[in-house]
UniProtKB/TrEMBL annotation:
PANTHER family: THERMOSPERMINE SYNTHASE ACAULIS5 (PTHR43317:SF1). It comes from the Bacteria. InterPro entries: PABS, SAM-dependent_MTases_sf. It holds the Pfam family Spermine_synth. GO terms for biological process: polyamine biosynthetic process. Belongs to the spermidine/spermine synthase family. Residues 263-508 form the PABS domain. This is Spermidine synthase. Signal peptide: none annotated.
């Protein structure tokens, strides 16, 4: 009886236990089914589509276009930052260094992820996000740069351009380049089947990446940026990169919603980005564009037309609609033909849109003028917007290279060549200024536009003054008065410019005659306005005398750190200009700054 009851209880327990597990398995199946259905709604499937990877060609193409996108992004970064921070070697160093850091970290992390979870879906999702990020750079990048600059300009007092460029580059370009850094280790994982041929496969991937990088270097520089600009260049290469994950996922019918969202974001950036330029706050721009060398902005005002190659600093060229003096450094530079023994010929290195040429033509109509301008796009703008005289020949060439091949001599040589906001190093050395001196007639005068008033030990102006005086005073004798030196400078009122004059003397007593400057100007031009302007220049002239203590600051082709010196000068300028705003921020906080708007 007990055995019968025990067996009965055991049977009941087994039946109950069996029913319990059947129900649990049923619930688990329903949960799995529901989860699968949910994931299919989001991604339609989660398994890796293997068909497109049956051939390794697609993986090689992925490496090729990823390498292309990296270099295109690097060049695009330079053109995006240049209008705000210049395209100096310092900015280039920041860009290259930042991107290399991002790529290195991406290589390490991408390799770990590929070993941990060798699913190509993860890699192509990263490529997709990187592509969309790069596509959004034209839309939001300029606003990020201005925001970062606005915060830093009132919070730091040194190294503004370096910090602003570095932080902007970190925020805008590190995330997508980090993601692209994961591509190569991931592809190595997916393309390598055995150790027998792994070196061959890695070599092929490296070749694909290198060839793609070559195209990503040449195409933006020589084709897309000069033709369609930086913003569209970003969109072109981001679009090519985005095509890779789209083909991958859509061919396997996975991540459909994610793919559509990325396409929408890309399309939105493509439509909206071109509607605003680098200087998006400006409303009266006659032209905004780019060339192989510069960002270009033409502003049409009521009394003048202005060319700028940087949205934050300086005016590169100007034409006064009514003619006459400009109120800028060109007026002071007009002292050069009055200082010279004769005023029959002039060479302008850094022609720009021809401001100085127009003034020479107005006040010295018989003077033969020759211009050299490396950027042909600027020369075209001069014809279109600035009324450059059509009879003045302008050569499209580097100033120093052109001078080295020229056999003529001139009464006046104007050196006004700038790379954004710094003078090119090859046009700041003793070798260059010796070349200029050799191309001056006896009694001829060189005038150099020094873009920033920067004084003190180790300043860029001290270096330029030491360099030029060492060249022009070499073997020229010392029998001249303090009011008739060979080298002199004059600050330009209400600007950051300083003009330097250097004369190739007729004899051992000849020099820059301060006292006779206004009289010579009126005799040669019959212009009272110019004579008055030269009287003002006379009061601002300061002799520069070379001494042995200046030898440490002489610039040569081997050592001419003009970009570092220029950055210091800009820092001092920003510090001075932003001082009142920093004081308001310190005393009144953000509300005080906001009350100024």
């Amino acid at each position: 009886m007990n055995e019968s009851n025990s067996a009965s209880k055991s049977a009941v327990f087994d039946a109950t236990h069996s029913m319990f597990f059947e129900r649990m398995i049923g619930y688990r199946s329903k949960v799995i089914s529901a989860t699968t259905a949910y994931r299919k709604v989001l991604m339609l499937e989660t398994h890796t589509p293997k068909a497109i990877l049956n051939s390794k060609i697609f993986l090689y193409l992925t490496e090729f276009f990823s390498g292309m996108a990296v270099m295109a992004a690097e060049l695009g970064a330079q053109r995006l930052l240049a209008p705000y921070f210049s395209s100096s070697q310092i900015v280039w160093t920041i860009i290259i260094g930042t991107i290399m850091i991002a790529m290195a970290l991406g290589n390490v992390w991408g390799g770990r992820q590929a070993d941990k979870n060798p699913d190509p879906d993860h890699l192509y999702r990263r490529i997709m996000f990187a592509a969309v990020w790069l596509a959004l750079v034209p839309l939001v990048g300029k606003y990020i740069i201005i925001a970062i600059s606005g915060v830093l300009i009132v919070t730091i007092s040194t190294n503004f351009l370096i910090l602003a460029a570095f932080i902007s580059c970190m925020v805008i370009f590190v995330p997508p380049l980090f993601l692209l850094g994961t591509v190569t280790p991931g592809l190595v994982k997916f393309t390598t089947d055995s150790l027998k041929n792994n070196a061959t496969i890695v070599g092929r991937l490296g070749a694909c990446n290198t060839i793609g990088s070559i195209l990503g270097t040449f195409l933006p520089t020589f084709l897309t940026i000069p033709t369609v600009g930086t913003f569209v260049t970003f969109l072109i290469f981001a679009g090519i990169l985005l095509a890779l994950p789209l083909v991958y996922f859509l061919s396997g019918r996975t991540y459909i919603i994610t793919s559509i969202a990325c396409i929408v974001l890309f399309a939105a950036s493509a439509i909206v980005s071109p509607l605003s330029g680098f200087a998006f706050w400006e409303r009266n721009l006659a032209y905004e564009g780019e060339s192989e060398y510069n960002y270009l902005q033409v502003k049409d005002l009521s009394d003048r037309t202005i060319l700028s190659t940087n949205v934050l600093f300086g005016v590169q060229s100007v034409t006064m609609k009514a003619g006459g003096l400009t109120g800028l450094y060109y007026d002071t530079a007009l002292a050069a033909p009055a200082f010279a023994a004769h005023a029959n010929s002039a060479l302008i290195l850094g022609m720009g849109t021809g401001t100085y040429a127009r003034q020479l033509r107005e006040y010295y109509p018989k003077m033969a003028i020759t211009g050299v301008e490396i950027d042909q796009s600027i020369t075209k703008l001069a014809d279109r917007y600035f009324k450059e005289p059509s009879d003045i020949p302008v050569s499209t060439y580097d100033g120093r290279a052109w001078l080295a091949s020229d056999t003529k001599k001139y009464d006046v040589i104007m050196v006004d060549a700038y790379q954004d906001i710094t003078i090119p190093f090859q046009m700041s050395s003793t070798e260059f200024f010796n070349l200029v001196r050799d191309h001056l007639n006896p009694g001829g005068v060189m005038v150099v536009n020094m873009n920033m008033i920067s004084d003190g030990k180790g300043s860029i102006n001290e270096a330029l003054e030491a360099t030029i005086s060492s060249v022009f005073e070499n073997g020229a004798g010392t029998n001249r008065s303090a009011s008739s030196p060979l080298v002199a400078t004059a600050d330009v009122p209400d600007t950051t410019n300083r003009e330097l004059f250097a004369k190739k003397p007729l004899n051992r007593s000849d020099g820059l005659s301060f006292e006779s400057l206004p009289e010579t100007a009126v005799q040669r031009t019959r212009s009272d306005d110019l004579a008055d302007a030269m009287s003002s220049v006379t009061l601002r002239l300061i002799p520069v005398k070379y001494s042995s203590t200046m030898s440490g600051y002489v610039l040569t082709d081997d050592k001419a750190p003009v970009e570092v010196l220029g950055m210091r000068a800009i820092d001092e300028l920003i510090k001075e200009q932003a001082g009142p705003y920093r004081k308001i921020l310190k005393e009144q906080g953000i509300s005080g700054l906001m009350s100024l708007t």
